[in-house]
Amino acid sequence: xxxxxxxxxxxxxxxxxxxxxxxxxxxxxxxxxxxxxxxxxxxxxxxxxxxxxxxxxxxxxxxxxxxxxxxxxxxxxxxxxxxxxxxxxxxxxxxxxxxxxxxxxxxxxxxxxxxxxxxxxxxxxxxxxxxxxxxxxxxxxxxxxxxxxxxxxxxxxxxxxxxxxxxxxxxxxxxxxxxxxxxxxxxxxxxxxxxxxxxxxxxxxxxxxxxxxxxxxxxxxxxxxxxxxxxxxxxxxxxxxxxxxxxxxxxxxxxxxxxxxxxxxxxxxxxxxxxxxxxxxxxxxxxxxxxxxxxxxxxxxxxxxxxxxxxxxxxxxxxxxxxxxxxxxxxxxxxxxxxxxxxxxxxxxxxxxxxxxxxxxxxxxxxxxxx
Length: 371
Fold this sequence. Notes:
Elements: H1 18-24, H2 45-59, H3 61-68, H4 84-90, E1 113-118, E2 125-130, H5 133-144, E3 158-165, H6 167-180, H7 185-189, E4 199-206, H8 215-218, H9 222-246, H10 254-269, H11 274-281, H12 306-330, H13 339-348, H14 352-356, H15 360-370
Parallel strand pairs: 2-4
Antiparallel strand pairs: 1-2, 3-4
Helix pairs in contact: 2-3, 9-10, 10-13, 12-15, 13-15
């Protein structure tokens, strides 16, 4: 896709305020030599989700997941998360099979819900795919918002779930502890230290237009753009899992989105396209910012001031251009493993403003030499 820049990315940005500096602070930590150690072994929860996958082949994905994820047995209603039965179910005080009959989730197209186990450099990750927008929003609210009717932005088409308390695994762990230690001393003293025994990570993906970008704006036909959108989301959300497990952080921050969209775009198209990233964010006509653009979801907490938000977008724009230059220059000649993974490590090694600087390409190249 050809890019026609409309913003002078070499123009200096005003001095960085303390508020913006705090937002731009790089929190990723990359262990030395990590690229050579990848891919990492699967985490414990993957074996359990492999059993879900096998079972879903016979019984259907939604029916299978409903047996193991208690949230799928309650409707989306205001206040439902405060109900005693809901709390008892999600806290594993009783098995899902003992939940009394109720309305449950209203799903329009069960057959459109899929499940796969996706291999990533950080290990395999379960992925729930939903090809019906209303069903995607329903599952999003159930799994991310405790079945509360919170709004889901139109530009949101995926969710990375981390630290999910798997009730079946928790009960199995508790029973194992009881058998090995009848007095329950070890379980009572250190349950928080054993989270890997009962907490899961997984992805929820929709196949709607990525970032709410219409097929015509992306330059593709509708069916083709849906396929690409799902591929972009898979790469994008896989990177969030990667940074959480390997780099120590996963935040609602523009740096995370820069990384994840880089991997998503490269996974779908084989190379990086900064102009496509600008359209995803809503900054393709910067300094104009699309009020409906996805970048507005990443203003920080507390929110950046309007001035600092615009400055952050300017850094993001310039950083993406330098990343595109970096990708084009080094992708084809890289011989030490997967270049996209190496590039993600490089982008994670420096803050957005450093990557956006005039010497941003050199910053990335220095990082590439040491990964």
